[in-house]
Design goal:
By secondary structure, the chain is mainly α. Helix content is 72%, strand content 0%. It is built from 14 helices and no strands.
């Protein structure tokens, strides 16, 4: 009798479908899961913020500048459409070509110098035999904390012709004062060293992170095979940090073509206009001469140059990676 009753209870229990689970807290409504989880919403939010900032601070000003480049806008009166007149005048201006050539010279010298300087500092900070790396890291990073305007003022004080520290030391040793400011080539050289010194700290951090990610087993195996420090650097370190090197060269090249603050504070494009770079050329025409439409056309040309540099370096990087 008890056996049949138990079997009946089990059958009845199995026949009844399980109901929805009740909340452990009576009276509290159960939360429904939304269709999109938080791990998905977070990346969308971050991308949306970046997209809005990109549109507001890059796309929209670029569209406005492109529109002004076809007008005679001077910042006061209403812009009047003049077609391609600004571009025709720009490509016929010898001052524009002089600024472009000077910018190319500056970039060709400053980018490799900054690359070598930042990589050398990174190698010093990651070397196991180096002493005082904490102090050196602070000293190397200080220039990055200084404003570009202040950097230009510091280097102008050091390399002034009549009051500069460099000429003071040279004359104290019996030498003759060097025309750091009145000689166009020397003046540009001072700008190159100043910007390389100021920008090396950020690139140094990139190289330090890349070098520390290289497996130590590579160096240990190379040491067992008798490879010296130079061969380890050439055949292990350089190939391993190639992606970081590409980023450093790309950012440095774009930054060189946009250099303005340091050279403006150091020599104001002098002597005369011999060291006027492209951004200074745009600034002079747009803000000092009130030719905003013409300066906008020059800005569009500069943007095309920067895009061409980026595309060329990306193509070269892809070709290099495909050969590996």
């Amino acid at each position: 009798m008890s056996t049949s009753t138990a079997a009946g209870d089990v059958t009845a229990t199995a026949a009844v479908p399980p109901g929805p689970a009740r909340s452990s807290t009576p009276g509290r409504p159960r939360r429904r899961r939304s269709g999109v989880s938080r791990p998905v919403l977070a990346p969308i939010a971050f991308v949306a913020v970046n997209a809005v900032l990109f549109v507001v601070f890059f796309v929209w000003p670029a569209v406005i500048g492109l529109g002004y480049s076809f007008t005679d806008y001077n910042g006061v009166s209403d812009p009047k459409f003049i077609g391609l007149e600004n571009y025709t005048q720009l490509f016929g201006d010898s001052t524009f070509y002089a600024a472009l050539v000077r910018t190319l010279i500056y970039a060709v010298v400053a980018v490799p110098l900054g690359f070598v300087l930042s990589l050398s500092m990174a190698l010093m900070l990651t070397s196991p035999a180096a002493k005082g790396r904490s102090v050196a890291r602070i000293v190397f990073f200080v220039p990055w904390l200084i404003s570009p305007i202040v950097t230009g003022v510091i280097w102008r004080w050091m390399f002034g012709e009549n009051f500069g520290l460099a000429n003071f030391v040279i004359e104290s040793l019996g030498g003759k004062a060097v025309p750091w400011q009145s000689n166009a080539d020397l003046s540009l050289l001072v700008v190159i060293f100043a910007t390389a010194w100021a920008g090396a700290a950020f690139n140094m951090l990139l190289f330090v992170a890349a070098i520390r990610n290289v497996p130590q087993s590579y160096y240990e195996a190379a040491s067992l095979d008798g490879a010296g420090a130079w061969h380890q650097f050439r055949y292990i370190t350089l190939p391993s940090i190639a992606p970081t090197s590409f980023i450093v060269v790309l950012l440095s090249s774009l930054g060189a073509f946009k250099e303005f603050a340091t050279i403006q504070a150091l020599n104001n494009g002098g002597p005369g206009t011999d060291n006027t770079l492209l951004v200074q050329y745009i600034y002079t025409n747009g803000f000092q001469n009130a030719h905003i439409g013409y300066a906008s056309a020059a800005s569009m040309v500069l943007m095309l140059i920067l895009m061409a540099i980026a595309l060329i370096q990306l193509a070269m990087n892809r070709r290099t990676e495909s050969r590996r």
